[in-house]
Amino acid sequence: MKHFHVHVVVKDLEESINFYRNLFGTAPTMTKDDYAKWMLSDPRVNFAISSRGKNIGVNHLGFQAENGEEPNQLKELAINADDEGILDQGETACCYAKSEKHWTIDPTGIAWEHFQTLLSASVFNQNAANGDEACCAPLHSKSNNTDEPCCVPNKQHPLGKSCCE
User: Residue 121 has what pLDDT?
Assistant: First the structure.
């Protein structure tokens, strides 16, 4: 059974933690200096907030898979929605968790993440393939002037940043 996932970038993390603690009637299941997460069971929602991100507000939406077949089913749905807009990150660390994940972006530019958490991680984000930092939500191709969603580090960037920055 999957969890719906919502990640919101907030201006003041402590103020937002207090607000959502009261709104949900429970403390976060994880807190860091720049991040908090609630794993709610009714409704089944993985709700995360962070002080990271360019814009305050909804950062991305998604589905968190729990069993071995669900990630493949979610990937098929993403391919059916936009077969050329899939960004498959594979195994990566994001939001203090090691996950297997892929992304797609809806026509309005909202990033959708499908992932299965494998383990906890000590860093907010890191690309498992090469140890580089990898952002947690890709940009729509129209906003980053590429042909497809982008979120992997770009060695050609003059400052060594990812194409999402």
Answer: 63
pLDDT digits (tens, 9 = 90+) for 35-74: 999 999 999 999 999 887 778 999 889 999 988 789 889 9
User: What pTM value is reported for the model?
Assistant: 0.72
Q: The domain 3-144 is classified under which CATH number: 3.40.50.720, 1.25.40.10, 3.10.180.10, 3.30.420.40?
A: 3.10.180.10
Laid out side by side, the sheet with 125-127 consists of: 30-32, 35-41, 44-50, 3-9, 57-65, 111-120, 97-105, 87-94, 125-127
